[in-house]
Design brief:
Elements lengths: L1 E2 L2 H21 L11 E2 L5 E5 L6 E7 L5 E7 L18 E5 L2 E9 H14 L17 E7 L10 E8 L2 H12 L4 E2 L14 H5 L7 H8 L4 E4 L5 E7 L6 E7 L5 E4 L1
Antiparallel strand pairs: 1-13, 2-10, 3-4, 4-5, 5-9, 6-7, 7-8, 8-9, 11-12, 12-13, 13-14
Amino acid sequence: MAQRGSLRDASLAFRLGMVAVVSGAIAGAAVASDEGPWRVGAPEWVFVQEEAIDSWPGIYHDSESGACIHFDVAFPFVVCPLPAPDAKDADIEVGRSGVVPYRLKVSSTAAEVRKMRADMKRLGVSDAALPSSNGCPGGRRISVAFMPEGLAQTSQVWNAHADTCSDAQFQRVREFFFGTGRGPATDRRPARDGRLLDKTEVEAVAVGTPYEEVRAKLGAPSWGECGPGDGFTAEWTYKARPHWIERKFRFGRDHRLVAKR
């Protein structure tokens, strides 16, 4: 259980208040959807939305393999898509999935974590805040950017990456992106039901409850993260004094609640 000060409280209040504005900017169409920004067509994948002001972030988790994908939909000045391949980075694949242009890169998870750690240190991040693990031995990262609207600064990019620890996870992620009927859900927008909860609502959720039932009871979470292990974590916030309290719900590979903290 985490307690944070007034600055965090003000930030969360602003983001909750802005969600309706953001929803209109992220995608121009009809109704909010729990299904997220990607056409999946497979019940094994669940989408955990995160709160944001200028993008549509979240994670997709697969109960079959335990694979987990970090996702974000935003304008190019918010999330940088993979660059066009050149002599320095010839590993980037350029293609089309149906009619949608994409760029894809497969790399070593350990190498990507080392690069991120170096970048964070250059920015002055303390050693304690740096990633402590290089991921699973032999793990592969799939990074991909889909650009259904082109690459103008006013065109949105479907940006994602997944760290896979087995061939099964790698294949499931590739199928997620390139399987029949998969692709950017340009007619959807973020759900608008994120809200401050009462403590009794949070405490009433029992261990063993499926994520989708928790989601239906508590509304959209404010944050989601892959792990620990082959599960995922989601966070909900309830009112308390003097600060709001954020409770982390840990879900197992089968999408059922394992623990709250």
